Amino acid sequence: MTIEYATAHRRASHIPAEAGTPYFIEKGDGDRAHLFGDLITIYAGGEQTENAFNFFTVEGPKGNLIPAHVHADTYEVFYVTAGAVRLFVEDLHGNQQEKLLTPGDFGFVPKNCPHAYRMERHHSQVVGVAAGPGGTFERFFETLGAPTDQHGLPRDAFVPAPEKFATVPQQYDVRFLRDHQWKTG
């Protein structure tokens, strides 16, 4: 059994609203949101780590490329625990590369490097960690997506209205690159 807390983001959460409180979360019981065809589960965020880092999972079906984006102040880690995920990244000199990551593989994206990813197999899962001087962006998933109490993938993909993408950079360190082209594949 885990404790439930009321937070600024949810009326019931397994994540305490402030730093300095030890806690445990059973598998899948973090704060969840659906975005595109994926389920994002947040286990720790800025409130708990004094904006030092966040920790979340993204799981989804084989699907489309997640839109290219960049974080000006945030470093991001991709660690694949199930399935396969293709990570696309561009360095600060404009050199692009892609890599198919399978369970146990790790990808690192420095701040200011455009990146995107695509789930290549059904039931793929990525453990994500993001950290940087600008704070954390985990609440972006709930803001752009649809918060849910449901475990598992969404029945139908949740695609935000185009105008909603414009509001995200103002609150979170995520800037979408609408016309970005990947030359790698």
From TrEMBL:
A single Pfam family it belongs to is: Cupin_2
Q: Which Gene3D superfamilies match?
A: Jelly Rolls
Q: Please provide, alphabetically and separated by semicolons, the GO molecular function terms listed in this UniProt record.
A: quercetin 2,3-dioxygenase activity
* Ranges for domain Cupin type-2: 61-119
Q: Which CDD domains does this chain map to?
A: cupin_QDO_N_C (cd02215)
Keywords recorded for this protein, A-Z: Dioxygenase, Oxidoreductase
EC number(s) recorded for this UniProt protein: 1.13.11.24
Among InterPro entries, the record links this protein to: Cupin_2, QDO-like, RmlC-like_jellyroll, RmlC_Cupin_sf
> Under which main EC class is this enzyme filed?
oxidoreductase
PANTHER family under this entry?
A: PUTATIVE (AFU_ORTHOLOGUE AFUA_8G07350)-RELATED
Official protein name in the record: Quercetin 2,3-dioxygenase
- Native source species: Streptomyces hundungensis
